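Quarterly update from the structural biology core.
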Amino acid sequence: MKTALKTAPTLLPIFLAILLAVLTLNACAPKNAPRHNPAPSKLDLSDADLLCEQIFEAYDTDKDGKISSDEYAHGVIITFHQLDKNGDLQLDASELGDSWDTEAMAVDIDGDGRLTLSEILHHQSKSFKKRDVDGCGCLTEEDVRTWVIHKLAERQGCHPDGTPLNLSK
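Predicted structure, tokenized:
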């Protein structure tokens, strides 16, 4: 728990991804990463290993190389409280910064422009199941790496294979 508390403030982008499932690592890429680059020449995965390592350091509290649903929820709760700068038990756009977007709003069940811990925990249980690709009941290193790569690619405006996203529908 001490590690999670110590590491969590530096993991805001990672937490938001885990915390909000729909956000899933949307904010995990470095702040200077281009968003929706229409034709990336190459997918930049230079931060993928570090991000995976940080996720495991913060959330794998028993250090068994897997993140259980309980560890996931625990990490979400700790980080929620660290992000809640004004202590009102809600996260709003001022606390989430650039990460407050349409994906964050989708987690906002009552549409009040603030995310409560209840809303986030409701959503995180669904996101955990989605991220558990092999259905083993935990997030393995492979699950987390796949998730990180997909979200970094999305953040850079492309698919994991480097082909541009079709942004016009």
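Residues 1-11, 17-40 have pLDDT under 50 and may be disordered.
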